[in-house]
Model the fold of this input.
Amino acid sequence: MFKSKNIKISDFVLKSKQPFFSAQSISGKFQRRFTGIQFFEGEFTANYMAEHINEVKEFIAKHIFGRPFNISLSYYTKYTGDVKDMVTVSVNSSKGGRKVTLSNFAGTLKAGTVIQFENHKKLYTITEDVKGNGEMKLFPNLRQNVLAGEVVKYQNPEGEFVLKTDDINFSIAQIGKMKFEFVENV
Done:
């Protein structure tokens, strides 16, 4: 995102958007059906001193027309498990699938771990614990094919996003701040 230490980020909010509908039958059974792809969106505030406004303007100029940028999602994607090895895919998995077979590794990738694959930037969440040579269950469904031998990034993956902000309002003051909205680049 900002490559400078002059711009401080605050009020960072990440939202998981999950298009679904739910219904409860007369028998009491509850069902939830997903009608589209899950994605992330959010917002943050860039705080800066007047002499650093050009760095904010540069960020806007590069990204206002849809050029993606990466954001470290800090605590949300921080990995705290016991897997230390490189994790790779052992069998090809097709776009739309929810399961990926992994190579042999020591430890357990815990449910809730956020991952990415080498060939695309979509963020996925592991929905059940998985050990080496196991089948990893994911949410949402795969957006791209995943090939055998592909590396699974499980240690602090970064999201790829595009700006969603329509109005750019510059505060002409000694201390400036600007709110940005973004959406995952799926």
